[in-house]
Structure formats: C-alpha cells, structure tokens
C-alpha cells in the first residue's frame, strides 16, 4: 500500500482512497483504501453484511459513494462513469439472465447493448460455445438449464464485450464444489488473457484461488494481501482459520 | 438507436414466449367483450308479464297483441280477476301486470278517454322502470295507430326520441369502458410488472451497469406495450363493429389521438408504480386495486357518475379513465371532436405530466 501512493492511480484497474458509503446513519463501507492491479484476480471476502456487495456496487457505478476517491480503469467514478461502463462486465449475486431467451439470444442482446455488430456478436458466440463447451445448447432457453450452466452463461454475458475488468458478485452460490472448480477454470482463463477479475465470495476454498484477497468485516478492511502471505503473517494453516482469527479479533 | 432496437426486440421475445402474458393481452379482451356485450346487459328481453283484459274488445286485443309481438315482453299469464295479482307477483312468475278497463273500445270512441293500469314488481327497480317505460311506449304507439284509422284525436301524444343510441344497446355503453379497462390491464399492469420483474430478478442491475441510458431502458420497456395497446384497441373497435355494430360517428383520427394520449398516460402510471414498488405481486395489486376497480366502478363505465353520492363524484374527478371513457363515448356515439372534448385531452395531458415528473424524481433518487 505504501508503494501504491507513489505510483499514479491511472496505472491501476481499481484505485480507492478513503472510500465511504453510508445509508442514512448506517455505514456500509468505512474508509476503504485498496487498489487492484491489471490482470489480477482479486477476492473480496467477508460474511454477509461485511460490505463486499456495496463495494462492488460502487465500483460498477450502481451506487454513488458518500465520499472518497474511486477510480476504475483510471477513470473517475463520479464524472466519467459513462466511459467506465463500456469497459466493465458484471455478474450479479442474483442470477439474472433472461430466462425466456435462449443462450444465443442473451448473448446477442447484451452484445447489441454494448454496440457490437452482428458479425462480432456471432464470433463472440462461437468463442463462448467453444470455450465454455456450450455446443448444442446455444438455442436452449436459459430457464431450462441447471444453475451451474446458468452461471456459466452469465459469465459469458459479462465478458461478451471483452471488458478490462469483470466483477463477479458471489458467482458460485448454490452449486456443488466440482461445478465451482470448473467455473474457476474459466476465471483463470480470462485472467490469463489479461482481464482483471474482482470477485466476492464467502467460500474459503475459493479465496485460495485468488491472487490477492481483501478480508472485510462490518464495512472495514481487516487485512489485504496474497493468501499465503496472510496465512504466514497471522500464523495459521488454512483460509478458514485465517478468516476466523481476523474477524473474531 | 441500435441499443434501443435490441432492447425492444428482447421485450417482444418476453411477451410472446410467456403464455400468461399472451392470455392477458389477447384472450381477456375478447372474453370481456363477450361477457359485457352479451351477458351483462341492461337491455330487457322477454319480460314475463300478466294481462287482465276486462273488456276483450277490438282495441284491447290490439294492445295485447302489440305486447305479445314485441320482443320485450312475453305473456306469462292471462288473469281472470284482480284477486290473482298479488299471488302472481309473489310467485315471481311475472314482473308486470297490465290491466285494461271494461268497455275499453267504447270508452275511447265515446269519451275519447280510457284507462290502463300498469303494476310492476319494484323489488328490482331497474327492471320495473324499464318494463313500465317499454309498456308506455307501446301504448303510446297504439294511440297513434288508432288516431290514424279512426277519427279519434288522442288527448295527448308523447314522442320519445333516444339520441345517439336509438336502440338503447348497452354494448355501445360498455365497449368504451372495456377499452379503458384493457388499456389499464396492458399499459399499467403489464408494464409495471415487466419493469418490476427485472428489478426483482436482478437483471435491471445488469442493465444499469451497461452503457445503456436509463431513458433508453424506459423507452425500450414501454414501446412494445404501446404497440400492443394500439393493436389491441383496434382489435376491440373491430370486434365491437362486427358483433355489436358499434359506430364511430366522430373522426377516426380524434379517436386514435385520444386513445394514444390515454395509452401514454397509462404507461406513465405503470412506470410510476414500478419505480415505487419492489416486487411483482405488489405491482399487480396496486394496478388492480388502485386502477382496475376505479375504472370499473368510478369512471362511469357501469354506474353513471351523476347517480353517485357527492363525495364519490368528487373522487371520480381524479380518476384518469373517467376522461377517457367520456371522450370515447363522445367521439364514437355523438361524433364529438376537439371542440367538445378539449377538457378531456387537457386533463389527460396534465395527468401524464404529473406522473412522469413524479417518476423521474423517484428514479433519480434511487440511481445515479
């Protein structure tokens, strides 16, 4: 963090300083200071109500911060949200694709919204079909798919326009560990291609997959760093122990 | 523009793939038209009546045959004496008894005057009223007949002329109301439900993260329902014309102008509801309770506003469908134009303005 202040904020995918969000008297996020490097997989960890989702909503422009500095891809969230929106993808906590539409129609719709022409939409659909092994299912309605598949398609939709950052708000809630493992392979793939991934989770095994994590509790950042460094620092062996130790104190 | 088209396309997919929506859009209007047009009718047909003809002569027979051959009445009972009347009414077999005096023809020819007594069962006041009106009309008609064939000059003559709806078809009264009802259903309920559904499922969040402007989202949401509403009212006008010979005395242009403005008002109410509620059930309930019931009960659709208690009349002033139904009836039945209906147009425009302002205020306070 000390180095961060010396480098200009434009270099970061996310740059937050003294970021605060209040709902009335309730402080959802209190004085957040963090940054995310381009191409990194960055995990936000915490129990329900820790302020992870509020933080993601501020970064995606769904909520306006009460005060503080927040830059996304080097652009200011207060004044340049129009530009930011073009370069980010978002997969929300609630599973939220259009159920009456087929996989391809969902892709075409969101592609259309991001201003892709039909040719690039088709090539992106082919990419998705290939990368996420969706062949034979592109014309199936989303309502008929199992949850793990829906989440896969939601990830495809979030990355349809090749965004610089993809935000994933508890992307793997409610699916079994093997499907979750599978989903993380896709996240790795995107990260290798240079996309920054910011993910919230309360599964501790998933925290291990992140390159850096940020543990939050009651709106405050308790610890931030690489998973192994944090484990060493707090003298614990597993993520679970780390989390319990940090949050209980 | 490209984004908007993609959005509208998606919205049509939603509508045409959800059979419940399709039922609401296409089956309900047809059913309502049939129910209100045929079943719930204020017209009287074949009212059973009793006749006590004390004279049984030329003129009295003429009257009885006139009543027999009209579609309004059927002779349910021929009475022999007044004593039977009470029993007959109590049994419910007849709604009306017509008593013709003794020496009916003679009295008319000699004195130029004769009496007919009409007794009606007023436990159903509307039926009784209508039956008596029909009977008087028939007798009046008879008086005119005999004045032509004989030298007798009737002491009086009533001439009743029903303007604008000469055959008193209640379907002509109902169809404008049904149109208002259906627009409420499609424009208010379906629009608000479809917006709230996106909020509930979280897809609205997804849309707000994209470069789509809020205005594009709202326009994209309402355009499909606007198109459907226009198609639907045309469909109802057509059905009304084919099955009930519903006229359009005024210009089609004014008719569609008024309808378009009311649709926009209804859509803005739908948006107003959807920015204020969080789930589909509440949206549906509000549309039903706050709009559907007043449309049926307070806008003059079924019950005339003039017959309501004063406080309810005041309440009906703020009911948007009132101005639409009144305007529709004016255009369709009376041939009214802008000169007569400018108040209706103005009120509808004013209400639209209010709802849009309120919605924008609310929308802004929720999102950046």
Describe, in plain words, how this protein is organized in 3D.
- The complex is a heterodimer of chains A (249) and B (368).
- Chain A has 249 residues and is α/β, with parallel strands linked by helices.
- Chain A has helices spanning 2-6, 52-59, 81-86, 103-113, 118-131, 147-158, 177-192, 204-209, 227-233, 239-248; strands at residues 14-23, 26-36, 41-45, 67-72, 75-76, 88-91, 165-169, 196-201, 212-217, 220-225.
- Chain A has 10 helices and 10 strands.
- In chain A, the strands form 2 sheets. A 6-stranded mixed β-sheet of chain A has the order 6-7-8-3-9-10, with helices on both faces. A 4-stranded antiparallel β-sheet of chain A has the order 2-1-4-5.
- In chain A, β9 (212-217) and β10 form a beta hairpin.
- Chain B has 2 domains: 2-40 and 169-366, no CATH class; 47-149, abc type-2 transporter like fold.
- The mean pLDDT of chain B is 83.
- Chain B contains 14 helices and 4 strands.
- Chain B has a 4-stranded mixed β-sheet, sandwiched between helices.
- Chain A binds chain B through residues 60-64, 81-82, 85-86, 88-90, 92-98, 100-101, 105, 108-110, 112-115, 141, 157, and chain B through 2-3, 5-7, 9-10, 13-14, 17-18, 201-203, 205-212, 367-368.
Shape of chain B: elongated
CATH architecture of chain A: 3-Layer(aba) Sandwich
Q: How many extended strands of chain B?
A: 4
The structural class of chain B is alpha/beta
Short description:
Chain A has 249 residues and is an alpha/beta fold.
């Amino acid at each position: 963090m000390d180095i961060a202040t010396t480098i200009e904020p434009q270099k970061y995918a996310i740059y937050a300083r003294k970021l605060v969000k209040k709902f009335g008297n309730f402080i959802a996020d209190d004085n957040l200071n963090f940054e995310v490097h381009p191409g990194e997989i960055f995990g936000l960890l915490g129990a329900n109500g820790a302020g992870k989702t509020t933080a993601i909503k501020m970064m995606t422009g769904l909520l306006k911060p009460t005060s503080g500095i927040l830059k996304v891809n080097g652009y200011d969230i207060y004044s340049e949200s129009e530009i930011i929106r073009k370069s980010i993808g978002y997969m929300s906590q609630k599973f939220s694709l259009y159920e009456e539409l087929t996989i391809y129609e969902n892709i075409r719709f969101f592609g259309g919204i991001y201003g892709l022409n039909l040719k690039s939409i088709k090539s992106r659909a082919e990419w998705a079909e290939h990368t996420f092994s969706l062949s034979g299912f592109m014309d199936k309605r989303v309502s008929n798919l199992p949850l793990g598949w829906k989440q896969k398609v939601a990830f495809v939709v979030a990355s349809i326009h090749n965004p610089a950052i993809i935000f994933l708000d508890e992307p793997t809630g409610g699916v079994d560990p093997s499907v979750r493992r599978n989903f993380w392979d896709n996240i790795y793939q995107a990260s290798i291609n240079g996309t920054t991934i910011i993910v919230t989770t309360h599964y501790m095994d998933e925290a291990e997959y992140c390159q850096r994590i940020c543990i939050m509790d009651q709106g405050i950042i308790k610890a931030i760093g690489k998973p192994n460094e944090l484990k060493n620092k707090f003298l614990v062996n597993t993520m679970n122990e780390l989390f319990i130790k940090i949050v209980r104190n | 523009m490209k984004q908007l088209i993609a959005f509208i396309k998606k919205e049509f997919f939603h509508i045409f793939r959800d059979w419940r929506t399709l039922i609401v859009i296409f089956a309900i209007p047809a059913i309502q038209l049939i129910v209100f047009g045929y079943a719930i009718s204020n017209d009287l047909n074949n009212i059973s009546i009793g006749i006590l003809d004390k004279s049984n002569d030329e003129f009295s027979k003429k009257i009885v045959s006139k009543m027999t051959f009209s579609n309004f009445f059927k002779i349910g009972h021929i009475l022999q004496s007044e004593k039977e009347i009470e029993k007959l009414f109590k049994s419910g077999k007849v709604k009306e008894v017509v008593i013709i005096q003794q020496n009916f023809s003679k009295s008319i020819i000699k004195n130029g005057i004769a009496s007919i007594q009409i007794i009606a069962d007023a436990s159903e006041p509307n039926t009784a009223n209508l039956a008596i009106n029909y009977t008087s009309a028939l007798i009046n008609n008879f008086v005119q007949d005999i004045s032509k064939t004989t030298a007798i000059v009737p002491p009086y003559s009533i001439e009743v002329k029903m303007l604008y709806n000469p055959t008193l078809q209640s379907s002509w009264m109902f169809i404008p109301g049904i149109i208002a009802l259906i627009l409420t259903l499609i424009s208010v309920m379906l629009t608000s439900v479809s917006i709230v559904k996106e909020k509930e499922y979280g897809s609205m969040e997804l849309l707000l993260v994209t470069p789509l402007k809020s205005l594009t989202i709202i326009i994209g949401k309402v355009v499909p329902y606007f198109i459907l509403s226009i198609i639907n009212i045309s469909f109802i006008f057509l059905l009304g014309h084919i099955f009930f010979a519903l006229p359009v005395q005024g210009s089609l242009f004014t008719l569609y102008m008024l309808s378009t403005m009311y649709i926009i008002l209804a859509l803005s109410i739908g948006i107003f509801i959807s920015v204020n509620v969080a789930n589909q059930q509440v949206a549906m309930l509000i549309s039903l309770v706050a709009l559907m019931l007043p449309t049926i009960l307070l806008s003059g659709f079924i019950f005339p506003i003039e017959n309501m208690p004063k406080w309810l009349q005041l309440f009906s002033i703020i009911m948007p469908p009132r101005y639409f139904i009144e305007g529709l009836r004016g255009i369709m039945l009376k041939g009214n134009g802008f000169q007569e209906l400018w108040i209706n147009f103005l009120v509808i425009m004013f209400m639209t303005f209010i709802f849009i302002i309120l919605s924008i205020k609310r929308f802004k306070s929720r999102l950046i």
